[in-house]
TrEMBL record:
UniProt xrefs under Gene3D superfamilies: 3.40.50.880
Keywords, alphabetical: ATP-binding, Cytoplasm, Glutamine amidotransferase, Hydrolase, Ligase, Nucleotide-binding, Purine biosynthesis
InterPro entries named among the record's database cross-references: Class_I_gatase-like, PRibForGlyAmidine_synth_PurQ
PANTHER family on file: PHOSPHORIBOSYLFORMYLGLYCINAMIDINE SYNTHASE (PTHR10099)
GO MF terms, alphabetically ordered: ATP binding; hydrolase activity; phosphoribosylformylglycinamidine synthase activity
CDD domains noted in UniProt: GATase1_FGAR_AT (cd01740)
Protein name per Swiss-Prot or TrEMBL: Phosphoribosylformylglycinamidine synthase subunit PurQ
One annotated GO biological process: 'de novo' IMP biosynthetic process
GO CC terms, sorted: cytoplasm
A Pfam cross-reference name: GATase_5
Length: 257
């Protein structure tokens, strides 16, 4: 098996980069963490890697809107390198602040003539939501989610409300199989608050691009890779591994030859 190299791209205010590094290493990849300013100095470095991960955090202090400044940097200074990377059939993962950044950079859904199709806004609750939630997984062709049905992992964000410009955009994304992660509740067909922690349209928690190789999600799979990270592991019994680990392993195995 060819071992892929992962670039965990940091910015000022990233705070989940070490966890993302650890998760990809557990899954069997080589991992390097790099500050975006270093990549801007020489964008061609990106092509040394097979997987790009933009981790969670508060880049640029969430100024303007969470992930917006990082998105602008990605689109304006690294746009060509990123398109080349994506078109080489490599993988891109954005977690939480990373999802905000890659979505707002147009890497998941290219904008149309009227502008962006979707964004992530402030939680309906008006506060930071930091707790464990349940996810339903519809992998469709998303490389990262192959074989998964559900996940129990934490969220920690203030701006995770997924909004499309019009309802038909969300309907189209569902039909195309791009809505790959939704918040779930056992008794609600579409999860309502608090199961849906931010009021996302369609209870959307994660979205992939049309190829299935770019995934963005608000919850944190890298915070549940070890079974002991689950808050109830002593009561429920120790699972074999954390629910988030298969997502990283799928990405690594995609490059198996
Ligand atoms: N954990 C995170 O990445 C948080 C994302 C962002 N700072 C928010 O609060 O919405």
């Amino acid at each position: 098996m060819a071992t892929p190299k992962v670039l965990v791209l940091r910015g000022p205010g990233s705070n989940c980069d070490q966890e993302a590094h650890f998760a990809f290493e557990m899954a069997g990849a080589f991992v390097e963490r790099m500050h975006i300013n270093r990549l801007r100095e020489d964008p061609a470095q990106l092509q040394r890697f097979q997987i790009l991960c933009v981790p969670g955090g508060f880049t640029y202090g969430d100024d303007v809107a969470a992930g917006k400044i990082l998105a602008t940097q990605l689109a304006n200074f690294l746009g060509d390198a990123l398109r080349k990377f994506r078109d080489a059939e490599k993988l891109i993962l954005g977690i939480c602040n990373g999802f905000q950044a890659i979505l707002k950079a147009g890497l998941i859904l290219p904008p149309d003539e009227d502008g962006p199709l979707a964004t992530l806004g402030h939680n309906d609750s008006g506060k930071f939501e930091d707790r464990w939630i349940h996810l339903r997984v519809n992998p469709n062709k998303c490389v990262f989610l192959k074989g998964l049905e559900s996940m129990h992992i934490p969220v920690a964000h203030g701006e995770g409300k997924f909004i499309t410009r019009k309802q038909w955009i969300l309907d189209g994304l569902k039909q195309a199989g791009q809505v790959v992660l939704t918040y779930s509740h056992p008794n609600q067909p579409e999860a309502q608050y608090p199961a849906n922690p931010n009021g996302s349209m369609g209870a959307v928690a994660g979205l992939c691009d049309a190829t299935g190789r770019v995934l963005g999600l608000m919850p944190h799979p890298e915070r549940h890779v070890l079974p002991t990270q689950h808050p109830q592991w002593t009561r429920l019994g120790l699972a074999q591994e954390g629910d988030g680990l298969p997502l990283f392993r799928n990405a690594v195995e995609y490059f198996a030859t």
